[in-house]
Specification:
heterodimer; B: mainly beta; globular
């Protein structure tokens, strides 16, 4: 199975900041990489699919990049609603649809 | 309104069973694959199982294979997860999620575009 590792595990930032979250796969996943946002008590939300594609309705301050085994999620100009846990997920070799362990983004 | 609503969670004892349901509305249910994903307390998301649009293909995580069964009733726009031989480490919030595609196939970048709010399963000793 492909293993997904996210860094950092947690991150403190302020409203208006730009942050970058990283996700590494144990082997090349050819951009078969998705990003989700999860706020406690809410349904997880798809942000980015296929490494770069912004899901409909997601603000353009979210962007994805990367290739091979390393991918990033960048959030420009953080808003209060952005403080949540972010998960990457590979869909290159399935099943299983492996998730990373998550990055918790907290308010500084 | 496109939505998924889970139900059927509860508190059960070790070794017991529980049937989870996920009612879909606002879209054509029988054209999409679906998944169950869970989150144990204080842990991250874990994919559990998937089923193709017509129920002909089913996929499971090793941790639940042989104990959980995913199914669907396209006439009732409902997804199910039958759980059995429940263990303490099955305690989790269970979410159903819609796949962007109809099945898990090569070259399909399966992403989960619609999620429910979850139903909690607690396995006590």
């Amino acid at each position: 199975d492909i293993q997904m590792t996210q860094s950092p595990s947690s991150l403190s930032a302020s409203v208006g900041d730009r942050v970058t979250l990283t996700c590494r796969a144990s082997q090349s996943i050819n951009n078969f990489l998705n990003w989700y946002q999860h706020t406690p008590g809410k349904a997880p939300k798809l942000l980015i699919f296929a490494a770069f594609s912004l899901q409909s309705g997601v603000p353009s301050r979210f962007s994805g990049s990367g290739s091979g085994t390393e991918y990033t999620l960048t959030i420009n100009s953080l808003q209060p609603d952005d403080f949540a846990t972010y998960y990457c997920q590979q869909s290159y070799s399935v099943p299983p649809h492996t998730f990373g362990q998550g990055t918790k983004l907290e308010i500084k | 309104q496109v939505q998924l609503v889970e139900s059927g969670g509860g508190v059960v004892h070790l070794g017991e069973s529980l049937r989870l349901s996920c009612a879909a509305s606002g879209f054509t249910f029988n054209t999409y694959a679906f998944h169950w994903v869970r989150q144990a307390p204080g842990k991250g998301l874990e994919w559990v199982a998937a089923i193709s649009y017509d129920g002909s293909n089913k996929y499971y995580a090793d941790s639940v294979k042989g104990r959980f069964t995913i199914s669907r009733d396209n006439s009732k726009n409902t997804l199910f997860l039958q759980t059995s031989s429940l263990r303490a480490d099955d305690t989790a919030m269970f979410y159903c999620a819609r796949d962007q595609f109809s099945d898990l196939l090569p070259d399909y970048i399966n992403a989960f575009d619609i999620w429910g709010q979850g139903t909690m399963v607690t396995v006590s000793s």
